[in-house]
Known about the structure:
- The chain contains 26 helices and 22 strands.
- The protein has 5 domains: 3-65, Helix Hairpins, CATH 1.10.287; 89-323, 2-Layer Sandwich (D-amino Acid Aminotransferase, Chain A, domain 1), CATH 3.30.470; 328-436, CATH 2.40.50.140; 438-599, DNA polymerase, domain 1 (Orthogonal Bundle); 603-686, BRCT domain (Rossmann fold).
- The strands form 5 sheets. Strands 12, 13, 14, 15, 16, 17 and 18 form a 7-stranded antiparallel beta sheet that branches.
- The longest helix is centred in the N-terminal third of the chain and has 27 residues, at 3-29.
- By secondary structure, it is of the alpha+beta class.
- A hairpin with a 7-residue loop joins strand 15 (383-387) and strand 16 (395-400).
- Nicotinamide-adenine-dinucleotide binds at residues 23-24, 26-27, 33, 35, 37, 40-41, 67, 86-87, 89, 123-126, 130, 146, 182, 234-235, 297, 321.
Amino acid sequence: xxxxxxxxxxxxxxxxxxxxxxxxxxxxxxxxxxxxxxxxxxxxxxxxxxxxxxxxxxxxxxxxxxxxxxxxxxxxxxxxxxxxxxxxxxxxxxxxxxxxxxxxxxxxxxxxxxxxxxxxxxxxxxxxxxxxxxxxxxxxxxxxxxxxxxxxxxxxxxxxxxxxxxxxxxxxxxxxxxxxxxxxxxxxxxxxxxxxxxxxxxxxxxxxxxxxxxxxxxxxxxxxxxxxxxxxxxxxxxxxxxxxxxxxxxxxxxxxxxxxxxxxxxxxxxxxxxxxxxxxxxxxxxxxxxxxxxxxxxxxxxxxxxxxxxxxxxxxxxxxxxxxxxxxxxxxxxxxxxxxxxxxxxxxxxxxxxxxxxxxxxxxxxxxxxxxxxxxxxxxxxxxxxxxxxxxxxxxxxxxxxxxxxxxxxxxxxxxxxxxxxxxxxxxxxxxxxxxxxxxxxxxxxxxxxxxxxxxxxxxxxxxxxxxxxxxxxxxxxxxxxxxxxxxxxxxxxxxxxxxxxxxxxxxxxxxxxxxxxxxxxxxxxxxxxxxxxxxxxxxxxxxxxxxxxxxxxxxxxxxxxxxxxxxxxxxxxxxxxxxxxxxxxxxxxxxxxxxxxxxxxxxxxxxxxxxxxxxxxxxxxxxxxxxxxxxxxxxxxxxxxxxxxxxxxxxxxxxxxxxxxxxxxxxxxxxxxxxxxxxxxxxxxx
Length: 687
Ligand SMILES: NC(=O)c1ccc[n+]([C@@H]2O[C@H](COP(=O)([O-])OP(=O)(O)OC[C@H]3O[C@@H](n4cnc5c(N)ncnc54)[C@H](O)[C@@H]3O)[C@@H](O)[C@H]2O)c1
Ligand SMILES: [Zn+2]
């Protein structure tokens, strides 16, 4: 090898070490890596290869030679009685990773060709943070992170908040028993946490691993307690006065018997073939697991053999981590498109240079919403980190800002819906932009039709999920008015539809034409217009034309209508295509007694200002009918009992609401009591 080769190699090795140290610091000390693991691993492997080719370049402080990580200021250092090591990684293709490990083990144990296969225990490699739990006389006295392997951090206070970690071991009173395992965050807990963050307009977390690590290494235990963490045990540290089982699998059984959470997905198997089978089987189940794993750990099962194999500086010789495809990868953001969801929500979607991540090729990923996109600072052309884990849709979780070559303008949400061209709106205080097109927007059509046909709206019997799906997909129904053009022949031609049922639908459509203004308004599916608001509006304006022409100020006069609702109604009727839909529906024969609301408004209001709660089954009145009666009498129906509740109307099988009413001393009525109240109050008022 020439001298220039060696010099170039030395330069490259030094550069790689500097980079690896930098990224390890971000990862292990600050819990805030900027590179995906796969990129870090590439650099790590390049350094390993260089050092193998040029042994003279090896230095004891190389990241390949020792565990990196250091104690964060603010935590007391804990010296590990038994060092906490790393595990050698096999990133090769499925079969060869296990075979390479088995061959090494056999060579080191000096097993001949015809010696029987080595017994292995295989388990999952949980993607979290290693923790050493020290129990003295069976009581948890200290919890420590790995740190640099020799010295970790005392995180006892934070670990005490992890409900799955026993504070006392069952049936163990040994002077010292250190249990090691992984603290992690379940995917559903992680998603829920991020959902809350997004709703609050706060920063979201990148992945469960870094979130869990950050929570454990949080200086304020109260903040740590807010992040739901879980735990799996997989090994031991120092032991005094306890007989360690002879195999790894028996150890895991023993840990489980002490009350330690141990993962059920593990096997004992002979030779490489069994390892390969387990790696493949778990690879197929990986997406469905409730937590992230980044591989399988193979361990020589016999403790005696483990001791014979021993350690190299950084890792045991008797274990190996056989990885799966990474769940985070770097790729380029080609464009940002807008997707319109079933409820009209606009989601920015990243079009990506296709990348293999989490086991599949991904070319689209969600950017969630404008605010998150801005906070992450994502721009078209950027190198972005894509995460795909489990069944969650792939998402862009970060960006390498240093890589940006030129100025790229900030992304903006479109002013009109890319599907239907209706105006887009952002609700005050909300994070989301929406298409205001409603039924007019093909993206929202099915949802809008179902809502229109719903029991509390136009009440079109038989027009459910399946049928709407069929009608829209076949292009037969593309708007609310086109519903009323459906004939028996067209319907009967659909799959699973007979003449009789088609006739029933046509009859139901006909029947629905005679309705009330409140039902019709509610059925239009105007954002923010629930059933109660629709009733209030109908009562207040009495006619649809008056409502359609109302100004925001006039709308604000209606009981319980605030600025957001008023704006939404005004916006809806300001759009010509919405007025057109209304006109067509009326032309199709949909009608209601005009002025009905105004008349009702003048009737007696015996329950004005009263709040009632309904619970259980009433003998004759349906829940809806009771609600209508109460509302017609000026009362309000609420879903939960509080000190502000005036009456609870209870029927059969009334549940916790009844208990709550008794607890708070709220008057409880049965159906007869309600009827009497309506009558006596109204006669009292008219008297
Ligand atoms: N993104 C970055 O910038 C960056 C920087 C540094 C390190 N990293 C990542 O950190 C990892 C390397 O870290 P490492 O050296 O700690 O090794 P490792 O995390 O790959 O392996 C050792 C660890 O595996 C864990 N583990 C999980 N399940 C286990 C089981 N069943 N049995 C035993 N141990 C189990 C333990 O916590 C143990 O400490 C790589 O994935 C690397 O990509 C990333
Ligand atoms: Zn639209």
